[in-house]
Amino acid sequence: MSADSTNLDTWLERIERLHSRPIDLTLDRVRDVAQRLRLQVACPTFVIGGTNGKGSTCAMLDAILRAAGYRVGLYTSPHLLVFNERAQVDGVRASDTALIEQFEAVEAARGATTLTYFEFTTLAILRLFQAAGLDALVLEIGLGGRLDAVNIIDADCSILTSVDIDHTAYLGNTREEIGFEKAHIFRHNRPAICAEPRPPAPVLEVAAELGADLWLTGRDFSYEGDRHQWSFRGRNARRASLPYPALRGANQLLNASGALAALEALSHRLPVSQQAVRQGLLTVEIPARFQVLPGRPTRVLIVEHVG
Q1: pLDDT in tens, 112-156
Q2: Is the CB of residue 65 less than 8 Å from the CB of residue 272?
Q3: Sheet holding 45-49, edge to edge
């Protein structure tokens, strides 16, 4: 380690060099270190995967849950400007000091085990959340699902937002192959929300093999709207007169309906009022994601992550 072990950038530069490959999809190493860290998640946890819509769905879940008064841990990637954006507790980015404390713990626990940048930092952020006394966790899958480091967590509710062609070098060349990888965030006898309108056959097959409680858009939940408002219908709940999400984009109602289906599925543990849903939808934001800056002329920030 560099002499300046109190500097976050120094830590991140070193973590990037720990493993011979930047991406090495396997869960053996990260699970081994997680066990040494005695990593446990006690609060209800949502894991969100998919090709598109992951970030928006995570942001809406986080905003609605916080509007309902819950303390929420939010893990997303990649970051836009600073690494701290990846770990938020109750809407506040983790400090350099808090992250470095967790990096030190992972470094001490890993021994001779090499971890990729994503694996190392995922373990650190999960440990940070473990110590924070949270009511809920919202975790975004980094790449794929089956062998992604976040998938060491057994989600109480999983959301698959979409399946399209992405990261073909790691996930396969077809929607069927990619869907197979992404669907493995589902868990036995737990709600698995599929917001993809045309799920490839392997998604349905994996859900059946795992014994997941599969919620399909158009069957178990749906949405409809006009120019001014929209409504959500779930298995047993209906939410009407909802404001459009503050996030811009053609698929945001689909993303929002997936988030509301997940909240319905865990409503016995995390009840959320209509007012909290409305407030969360109105206040949700993702910096530089179709972000309109104030003033004249109109300026719009659009940042896309291309895998």
Answers
A1: 999 999 999 999 999 999 999 999 999 999 999 999 999 999 999
A2: yes
A3: 92-93, 87-89, 72-75, 136-140, 45-49, 157-160, 191-194, 213-216
Q: Residue 188: which region, alpha, beta or left (left: phi > 0; alpha: psi -120 to 50)?
A: beta
pTM of the model: 0.92
DSSP labels, 166-178: --HHHH-SSHHHH
Q: Can you state the angle between helices 117-130 and 8-16, rounded to 10 degrees? A: 130
The helix (run of H) or strand (run of E) holding residue 184 is none
pLDDT tens profile 21-53: 999 999 999 999 999 999 999 999 999 999 999
The set of long-range contacts for 166-175, using a CB threshold of 8 Å and a minimum separation of 24, is 166/51, 166/307, 167/143, 167/307, 170/23, 170/25, 170/143, 170/144, 171/143, 171/144, 174/200, 175/200
E-strand ranges in the chain read 45-49, 72-75, 87-89, 92-93, 136-140, 157-160, 191-194, 213-216, 222-225, 230-233, 238-242, 289-293, 299-302
* Angstrom distance (rounded) from CA 181 to CA 203: 9
